[in-house]
Amino acid sequence: MIKKISAFALAFCIAVGHLSVLAVASENTNLTFDEYIIRHLENFEAEIDITDYVRHNNWDMKTSMNEFIGVLEKNPEIFFVSTQIEASFASDRSLCKLKGIDYTIKKTDYKNKKKLFDAASSKALKAVTPSMSDFEKALALHDYLILNVKYDIKKPTDDSRTAYDALVDGIAVCQGYSLAYIHLLKLCGIESIMLNSRAMNHAWNYVKIGNYWYHVDVTSDDPVMLGKTDMHGHASHNHFMLSDTALKKSEMKHRNWDTNGLPAAKNTAYDKLFLREIESGMVKLGSYWYFIMLDKASPSYDENFKKPDFDKNIPYYSTFADIYRYSFSKNTLDKIHQINSTWFIWGTEDSRTKSWWNGNYSSIAVYNERLYFNDSKSIYAFDSKGGKVIKILTPKNANGYIYGMTINDGQINYVIKQKPDATGSISKAKIK
Q1: Residue 184 and residue 75: Cα distance in Å, rounded?
Q2: How far apart, in whole angstroms, are the C-alpha atoms of residue 172 and residue 178?
Q3: pLDDT of res. 141
Q4: Which residue has the higher pLDDT, 121 or 28?
Q5: Which residue of 53, 149, 151, 212 has the fewest CB atoms within a 10 Å radius of its CB?
Q6: Taking the CB of residue 252, how many other CB atoms lie within 10 A of it?
């Protein structure tokens, strides 16, 4: 008698929690279950005989399907298979198969898509250097994903959920961010899994640094203004390397997760890092990390200001910002340049009743051993050693201000818009 059962893909932001048990067949192969499954999936096989693994590990059908889903979670490079799966077991377990495997691309397209995926992965890994600690590598990849992936606000049920969507297409929901992060960390030798909360309909990462586990929610650190506009060139760090206690108190009030047998995140060493105040990306140049923070010494700085009402065009006081450099090894923080700029409400700059938006919308990037940043009207190159600032670009006849920038393959991508929550338009300029 053959019994069948099916497991179907979960909602766009939920993944099945998984921690693999010992999964090595006893007689016919010395491959781990992961290696065995991946080999068959890369051949696009319709059915996979898992009898030896089932009998050796004493799995039932549900466990077998969860193990299969776990392979996909731990190996995001298998981006072409969905979590929809069926299992067929003989009553005496003499024959146990996985069936109905849902390949999301054609076998003939795999080679090209794999090439694109590998290239995108290699490009992302340029953000890390061998001299970085695991903590720094995790930080660099956290910021890389935020600055190069847009959150899919439309939240489709079938797309934007894979590491391929995040790394190649540059758009994802939380599952896509999480799987891409697992993949990149894995390539750096850093252990990570995906956690999920059904109550939140949300997924994020659990990352091991040294002997301790920490929460990292890349998705929640990718700022989306009022839930509708990607903040190009900006990155939050409020959900990076948090303990369980800090995560529960986070802006999203994370709750109802299961670490699948891993130790709880009790270490609070990183909970109060200064980088919680950083809303730009963080870039490494030489032995220092560079970033932008609001200038608390500015007379207009107010930690308790209320959020502006963008729909009613009600602004609050503007705030200057500073470029800082920090050494994790030396624990030194230095302010090296102040950015004095104002983002006026469009059309009021030359009027008697000037009005402006609260905050500073400068971004920072590095290219060819040189720093770049923007203010509201121009983009500058900055010599981190000599402190010399060179204006390299001022958009002509711009219908708005510069609200952020990134650099990709020697090309500056900057967004022009009239207010912070506007969609705006991306303009491009080649670095000479």
Answers
A1: 11
A2: 9
A3: 98
A4: 121
A5: 212
A6: 16
**Which residue's entry shows tokens 């004493």?**
58
What is the pLDDT confidence band of residue 153, given thresholds at 50, 70 and 90?
confident
- Better-scored residue on pLDDT, 317 or 192: 192
φ, ψ for residue 225 (rounded to 5)? -65, 120
**What 8-state DSSP symbol labels residue 276?**
G
Which amino acid is present at 283? V
Task: Give the model confidence (pLDDT) of 293-319 as tens digits.
Answer: 987 665 444 444 444 444 554 444 456
Q: Percent of the chain scored above 90 by pLDDT?
A: 68
Q: Is the pLDDT of residue 87 over 70?
A: yes
pLDDT at 282 over 70: yes
By the 8 A CB rule, do 207 and 86 touch? no
Q: What token pair was written down for 274? A: 């200064």
What are the contacts of 116-125 at 24+ separation with CB within 8 A?
Answer: 116/164, 116/168, 117/77, 117/79, 117/163, 117/164, 117/167, 117/168, 120/167, 120/168, 121/77, 121/167, 121/183, 121/184, 121/187, 124/148, 124/167, 124/184, 125/184, 125/187, 125/188
Render pLDDT for 210-261 as a digit per residue (tens, 0 to 9).
Answer: 999 999 999 999 998 656 678 999 999 999 999 999 999 988 889 999 998 9
Tokens standing for residue 312: 């009613």
Domains and their CATH numbers in the chain: 2-99 (no CATH), 110-276 (3.10.620), 278-432 (no CATH)
Rg (CA), the chain: 24
Question: Residue 47 to residues 43, 65, 98: CA-CA distances in angstroms?
Answer: 11, 13, 6
Among residues 362, 371, 365, 370, the alpha carbon closest in space to that of 404 is found at 362
